[in-house]
Each structure stands twice: as C-alpha cells, then as structure tokens.
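# step 3/5: fold
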Amino acid sequence: MILVGAALRMWAILTLGRWFTYDVRVAEGQPVVTTGPYRWVRHHTSFGPTYDRYAASKPHLFPGIW
C-alpha cells in the first residue's frame, strides 16, 4: 500500500510536468489537467502521501510483512 501511494504521487507529478509546483497555485495560461490520475481525483499529490501514511499505520492488516 505504501508503494501504491508513492507511485500515485509520482504519476501525478509526471502528468503535471512543467506545471508541477510544491505550492498550490495557478499560473496564467495553465490548463486544467484531465489526463492521467486527474481523470478521477483532482489532488493526487496530496492523496498519494496521505494514502501511504495510512497504509504505514496499519501493519496489523498485513501479517508477516514486517
């Protein structure tokens, strides 16, 4: 699950390309991205780390993984 969250974040960053920034902002002329993971959820770069932190807090759900 942790790797899924990290992969989701990376996919989102790669999809945004030059429009990716660490601060949330809109630049003039910036298009709305509707490809890649943005077809389903608008804030993947926030959702990915949240998902992997959730997964890291649940080791009891995956016996033998640790």
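# step 4/5: annotate
Residues 6 and 65 are 18 Å apart (CA to CA).
# step 5/5: archive (pending)
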